[in-house]
């Protein structure tokens, strides 16, 4: 139990300490907010530079697509995102590409015996290169990541709290086998929370094998793994995708088993959308 002050002098001294601590906290939050605003400006400068770069004259048309999705588990943890991808082919095998992805993350953890709920909107902007060889694509990207994390109740000792920013690197690999089997692998690292993430998916086309119809159905399995110094989690489960060829539109559902270092085992479900232009 906290000791009560013995006299009025102690009260005044403690009050000054509290005021100083609050002042330091407010200055820290103001500084973090200012850094966050500056970091957002760099996001837009990076996006502007990329758009200027890809708008140079080329014999290949710019490829534009959007993607969105989300995931939630049985404990109310999850994420959602909406992204824009612009790709400018330079040759038949080489292209430059950039993405802007607003996102929203919700997760929970324990600080002692107290459950903390974190909500964390963010913005990721990356640019990079893509290599394409027949049925194989390899992409390498780098950029910046900004996130503003709110904790309820507040945890002043949390490693991720308030406005944070840092570099991010991403890589992706996609290959279609002659059997109409697709393998996709994605990996990323974000300096905002020292977080590494990996996703692998294998899916099989099971309908419209001759492509005479407008719709193809694919089924498969995907797996994810993420970790940093404070958390690690893994998911694995089936997925199904419907692709409508005339619109270059796909919708995929996924779900299965999830295990994380905070709550142990449980279930999850997710949805993904893609639209090419």
Description of the molecule:
The protein has one helix at 8-54, and strands at residues 63-73, 78-89, 94-111, 114-133, 136-152, 162-176, 181-190, 195-205, 215-227, 232-244, 249-260, 264-276. The chain has a single domain, classed as Porin. Helix content is 17%, strand content 60%. By secondary structure, the protein is α+β, with helices and mostly antiparallel strands. It is built from one helix and twelve strands, in the order αββββββββββββ. β7 and β8 form a beta hairpin. The radius of gyration is 23 Å and the shape is globular. The protein has a twelve-stranded antiparallel barrel with strand order 1-2-3-4-5-6-7-8-9-10-11-12.
How is the main sheet built?
12 strands, antiparallel, barrel
**Strand share of the residues?**
over 45%
**Regarding CATH, which class?**
Mainly Beta
Number of helices: 1
What's the order of the H and E elements?
HEEEEEEEEEEEE
Kindly, what is the distance between the CA atoms of the first and last residues, rounded to a whole number of angstroms?
64 Å
Helix content: 10-25%
Shape: globular
Could you name the CATH topology? Porin
Give average pLDDT, whole number. Answer: 83
Low-confidence stretches: 1-34
Total strands = 12
In the CATH hierarchy, what is the architecture at level 2?
Answer: Beta Barrel
- Name the strands of the widest sheet in spatial order: 1-2-3-4-5-6-7-8-9-10-11-12
Radius of gyration from CA coordinates: 23 Å
Superfamily at the CATH H level? monomeric porin ompg
User: How many domain modules?
Assistant: 1
* Assembly state (oligomeric): single chain
Which structural class is indicated by helix and strand composition? alpha+beta
